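Collaborator request, handled under Task 6.
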Amino acid sequence: MAVSVTFVGAGDAFGSGGRFNTCIMVDGADLRFTIDFGASSLVALNKLGIDHNSIDAVLLTHMHGDHFGGLPFMLLDAMLGARRNRPLTIAGPKNLEARVVAAVEALFPGSGVMKPKFPLHFIELEVGAVNNILGLEVTPYPARHTPQADPTALRVAVDDKVVTYSGDGEYTEALTQASRDADLFIAECYFHDRPVQGHMNYTDIAAHRDDFAARRLILTHLGPEMLAKSTELPEECAEDGLVVRL
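Structure tokens returned to the collaborator:
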């Protein structure tokens, strides 16, 4: 059964190369979901002509703005202009609902008086366990990134395929477990050889390429140094709008 993956946004936190923040959309047979929903995701979806009301679920790797900061805009539009009427599930780290609500209030003060007219569900994912989210098997693995953001890598089984996204984080053995036998492993690769705390660089990717043992590897979240070298690499690098069929 075909599963498609669309890189709605493949950029870093700061829009290097004019790219949008992380938003990876996955279409299964009966379900459309995104992994992360960074601050610019609503703009990126509109550019691709994708209605955000068509998204059934948003899975979050961690609570940094370039990975979840688009949710306040999506939720406000869903209640106002887009007039969503179908359920939406948001799944992610601990204290998820309170953190999203706080972000909405910070960006749109006074909006808390508005209540969605569509079913909105927040689910906290248990790290190290298989979580059933609308029939998806979602397994979060601990990541080595900013601890306050509760970082994880996510392994998602959808239909008969497995998609793993590293989220943000340094290389750890957990990534080899999360990516093992995945149909697609999406790995952040912020810099080429410059070490950056809390992130992988290309030196890490090259050293562990065989350990990941996924059927396909795509690098994302590229910073300026990686963008300058991306065409020289043997690995596939994501771009905004790239569609992959598994």
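The cover message to the collaborator said: "The radius of gyration is 17 Å. The chain is about 25% helix and 25% strand. Please let us know whether this matches your experimental observations."
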